[in-house]
Amino acid sequence: MNKLISFTTVAALALLGGCAGLLRQAPSIGDSAEVVQQKMGAPTAIYGAGNERLFEYATGPMGQHTWMARIGPDGRLASYEQVLTGEKFATIKVDAATKEDVLRTIGRPSETSFVAMRDWEVWSYRYKEAGVWNSLMHVHFDRQGVVRQMLNGLDPLYEPKDKMGW
Question: InterPro entries attached here (predicted)?
Fold first, then answer.
């Protein structure tokens, strides 16, 4: 019995230890870039150069959140926001935005695919539509890397197959 309790305790502590990396302290406006990284850890990507940079904190491929920490010219946090939202997707202009624009707006995709019939690369982003529905936003790029279409729908990985009509 003691061995079972010990094993269970060790397993629970190991699981909690694995989750500790997910428990981060949100940065405060005005924090230095170094303090942001102390609180949030290493960014999943950094966009820009010099003091004006964007630190991306993506939770993909299954996560539905990506936070962007905008570091201003003074080297301090100017803004911090969760960018996988309908409002943020709406700022991406079809027939104008590029892959670089999309990366700086909503970060890296959860997954990528290709539509051969159109010769388009597709970046897909998991998110909660209106903060409620498990959704996927698909951003389609032509060969020149310009956004040509955006489509969203239910995320089949989060929805039971019987609810999706499969």
Answer: BamE_dom
Are 135 and 89 in contact, with CB atoms under 8 Å apart? no
Mean pLDDT of the 152-166 span: 75
Residue type present at position 64:
Q
Q: Is pTM, for the whole model, over 0.85? A: no
In CATH terms, is domain 84-166 a member of 3.30.1450.10?
A: yes
Contact 14, 7 (CB under 8 A): no
Are 70 and 54 contacting, i.e. CB atoms less than 8 angstroms apart?
yes
Q: What is the dihedral of CA 83, 86, 87, 88, to 10 degrees?
A: 40
| Whether 132 contacts 140, CB under 8 Å | no
**Mean pLDDT across the chain:** 86
pLDDT of residue 84: 97
Q: Residue 116 pLDDT > 80, yes or no?
A: yes
